[in-house]
Amino acid sequence: MTQKSLQDLIADGSVKVESAESPEDAKHRRRKDLLLSLAAIFIAIVFLFGVGGFSGYFLITGQGSAEERMCAASVLTSIATGAVGFAFGKNT
Hints:
By secondary structure, this protein is mainly α. It contains 3 helices and no strands.
């Protein structure tokens, strides 16, 4: 029995490569995935700016006890560390 490579089978027309979904379905799925990704990124950015802004305002105005200001400083430090880690982190 002789063995043929995949290239030979495709060239002979013995093997056809077809997608299981139609081009319209694929376009719709990609559009939906893009919109969901953008929505998640937008929500994360709004949340980070909201929490960061609240903590920054809390620290600048000096309201609350020393323990609460330390907690706000920890939140801001965590946000800054996460941003730096995201921007300059390694791809794993």
